[in-house]
Design goal:
By secondary structure, this protein is an alpha+beta fold. It has two domains: 1-34; 37-138, 3-layer Sandwich (Rieske Iron-sulfur Protein). It is built from one helix and twelve strands; from the N terminus they run H-E-E-E-E-E-E-E-E-E-E-E-E. Strands 1-2-12-11 form a four-stranded antiparallel sheet. Strands 3-4-5-10 form a four-stranded antiparallel sheet, with no helix packed on it. Strand 3 and strand 4 form a beta hairpin.
Length: 139
């Protein structure tokens, strides 16, 4: 009988550890800086996120009512929530070098959600965004 860990066991343990790190990291972040409201909307105190200090700053919020969402600072006192699902085939886009890029087929979107590169033919959908001072509610 082999006493070392199998390749499969090693991979499974690694995935379990990585998943635990992601879940605990997300939970800790959400517990301290994001508030999930009873109706599923998310309340954000934008002053707690350095990335939102400048116009053009982007915060990956996570899921808002089951929609992968980012918050973008669009002006001195304005913000916009974006549904990160690519309008081509609904794959979640990621922020890479200042643009949202779809890993499936290469569609690329500006920080405001407009299409830069297809095959997507329409921009990212907006997520309802309410701004009141330093508080933003998404959903």
């Amino acid at each position: 009988m082999e006493k070392g860990i199998s390749r499969r066991g090693f991979i499974c343990a690694g995935l379990a550890t990585a998943t635990g790190v992601v879940i605990s990291g997300t939970s800790a972040e959400a517990a301290g800086k994001l508030k999930i409201l009873r109706d599923g909307r998310v309340q954000i105190d934008v002053s707690k996120f350095k990335v939102l200090a400048k116009i053009g700053g982007v915060l990956s919020v996570g899921n808002v009512k089951s929609i992968p969402t980012a918050l973008v600072r669009t002006g001195k006192n304005s913000y916009q929530g974006l549904d990160l699902r690519c309008t081509h085939q609904q794959v979640t886009s990621k922020l890479v070098s200042g643009s949202f890029k779809c890993p499936a087929h290469g569609s690329e979107f500006t920080k405001t959600g407009a299409v830069k590169v297809g095959p997507a033919q329409s921009g990212l959908n907006k997520v309802k965004t309410e701004v009141s001072g330093k508080t933003v509610i998404l959903g």
